[in-house]
Amino acid sequence: MNEYDSNRILDITKKINYFPTKIISEADCYIINTCHIREKATEKVFHDIGRVKKEYRNKKKPILIITGCVAQAEGDLILKKDRYVDAVIGPQSYQTINKVIKDIENKKGQFDITNFETIKKFDELNSTNNSNSKVSSFLTIQEGCDKFCKFCVVPYTRGPEYSRSFEEILDEADRLISNGSREITLLGQNVNAYNKKNKRLSDIIYALQEKKDLLRIRYYTSHPKDMTSDLIETHKKCPKLMPLLHLPVQSGSDKILKTMNRKHSVKQYLEIITNLKEKNSKIEFASDFIIAYPGEKKDDFDKTCELMKTVKFINSYSFIFSPRPGTPASDMEKVDEKLARERLTIFQNIAEKIKLNYKKKLLNKVVKVLFENKMSKEKYKYFGRDEYQNPVIVYSKKNVIGQEKRVLIKKFSQHTIYGELIDTDNFLAA
Ligand code: SAM
Ligand code: SF4
Questions:
Q1: How far is residue 67 CA from its own chain's centroid?
Q2: Which of 121, 101, 140, 134 is nearest to 15 (CA)?
Q3: Which protein residues touch ligand 2 with a CB less than 6 Å away?
Q4: Which atom of ligand 1 is nearest to the CA of 145?
Q5: Domain 2-115: which topology?
Q6: What span, in angstroms and rounded, lies between the C-alpha atoms of 78 and 285?
Q7: Ligand 1 pocket, 69 CB below 6 A?
Q8: Helix, strand, or coil here: 245?
């Protein structure tokens, strides 16, 4: 979502002639867009501020603005601690950025803009052309969260759940498609909680399915509680909806899920997986896990490992619990640090093994790849992703960017899969 926000901030600043530059040392304005989800977020910001100061030591000071969730959560501290920072702007008020830049140009002082003005923000975004022309684009449809998991800062930094209007979303999708996007990932902190005037996420997916030049649809990130039957049905009825679902579970222990306030059990989670598989046997799953949550005993941890082995997630993001300031879990007694690290290693080894087995099965299979760009240094080498978001590289004499092609998988490394284009003429072998 920060990538989407960063692009939209740049779309707004273009209106006052501030354009993105690759020559960092010559920027007139420096914007650091931040994330607060896990530890060291604020330290990272101060580190980045230090880098900017060093870069501009013998030059005119650029305008320096901190945006995003760290600005929202700890903006007053940042402004107090460092006079070099001109403004902090929260994630729900970046539509004000042009006024802030103009005021800073006029030397009006330091600014703390951290109100929740989500409606005004999307009003501004709707009237601002989304200039993204990537083959694969993000489109925010929902923001914020009302679920208050005990470990999470999102309800405090992004505010309450807000869904954009159905029409605005489809307008933005049309613009992205006419800019060249062939894949759209619908975004939200709880994307499947989308609800506006009786329209649900499933309605958006059905509408996108009808867009002629759009080849692929994804949505990210979902909460198990909001996997409603209409949404599950889209995985059967919409061939453009990719067969990979990122569905965070956090833990395989009901006791821990309860103390996290996740509002679902492991059994309910597994029922969702079964329902989805019944609708679409091709579907695979990815997930998020928090290891060593306060109160996690060996037995709870073992259940999380068991769940990983049962579902065989093809991708997973696992982190040790990180106490976030202001959240209820931040006051709970932490699991011993050494034990937490050991558990993370055990868990990630299991996850890696499962992923490796999955990748091995891909060898000599034909997969569909949507090509996103050319590899920067290598002639005839193109990068794309298969339906399960695996990165795939092929050689081709012809430009295949923006096209979906069948690829025979030949080999893989830790992060990339290599293949040969098939059913085309004039292609070099990988
Ligand atoms: N809304 C989604 C859900 O309910 O599953 C997740 C969105 S959250 C922004 C992304 C991920 O960050 C979570 O799934 C969780 O695994 C991780 N996360 C959030 N707070 C964390 C914390 N305090 N410590 C470790 N990981 C955390
Ligand atoms: Fe955070 Fe997701 Fe829980 Fe909301 S549902 S509080 S975003 S983890």
A1: 17
A2: 101
A3: 145, 147-149, 152, 154-155, 189-190, 223
A4: 1
A5: Rossmann fold (3.40.50)
A6: 39
A7: no
A8: strand
Tell me, rounded to whole angstroms, the distance of Cα 46 from its chain centroid.
23
Run means of pLDDT, 10 residues per run, the chain, 430 residues? 93 95 90 89 90 90 95 92 94 94 90 89 88 93 96 94 96 96 97 97 98 97 97 98 98 98 97 98 98 98 98 97 94 96 98 96 96 87 96 94 96 90 60
- Which residue's alpha carbon is nearest to atom 15 within ligand 1? 288
Beta strands of 35-86 (E only): which ranges?
63-68
For the domain spanning 363-421, the CATH number is 2.40.50.140
Q: Domain segments of the chain: what residues?
A: 2-115, 363-421
Q: What is the pLDDT of residues 368-419, one digit of tens each?
A: 999 999 987 778 999 999 999 999 999 999 999 999 999 999 999 888 899 9
Ligand 2 atom with the smallest distance to the CA of 250 is: 8
The residue assigned the tokens 């087995």 is 357
Write down the H helix ranges in 149-200. 154-157, 166-179
d(CA 124, CA 114): 17
Tell me the per-residue pLDDT of 263-317, one tens digit each, with 9 for 90 and over. 999 999 999 999 999 999 999 999 999 999 999 999 999 999 999 999 999 999 9
